[in-house]
Design goal:
Helix content is 60%, strand content 0%. It has five helices and no strands. The protein has 100 residues and is mostly helical. Helix 2 packs across helix 5 and helix 4 runs antiparallel to helix 5. The longest helix is centred in the N-terminal third of the chain and has 18 residues. The chain starts with a helix and ends in a 5-residue tail after the last helix.
Length: 100
């Protein structure tokens, strides 16, 4: 019975965590500012936090830098205007595998 509850809870957490992300365009703008050394102020704290909260694991629940970078890049590319100047690729090259 406890296994079923744990399974249901984990499914619930997965779906609520993915729905809690801010607008990917906001994250793209804030991360572009971070790339240039700016903090973005308090309005960028949540979008930046959303970017760094995207973490993927590999075998035996170990942090996977490559899967994390791919997921973060997909998130940034989900912004419709993300294609200009390869900004998502530049951001991901610096911060894609960083674990905060």
């Amino acid at each position: 019975m406890n296994i079923i509850r744990l399974f249901c809870l984990s499914i619930f957490l997965i779906f609520t965590a993915s729905a809690a992300y801010a607008n990917p365009c906001e994250t793209l703008l804030c991360m572009a500012g971070k790339l240039q050394g700016q903090s973005g102020g308090s309005s960028c704290s949540q979008p930046i936090s959303d970017y760094f909260s995207i973490i993927r694991y590999g075998k035996r629940w170990r942090f996977s830098p490559s899967k994390t970078a791919a997921a973060r890049l997909n998130y940034l590319n989900s912004c419709p205007s993300a294609g200009s100047a390869n900004l998502p690729m530049l951001i991901n090259a610096v911060y894609g595998t960083v674990l905060f």
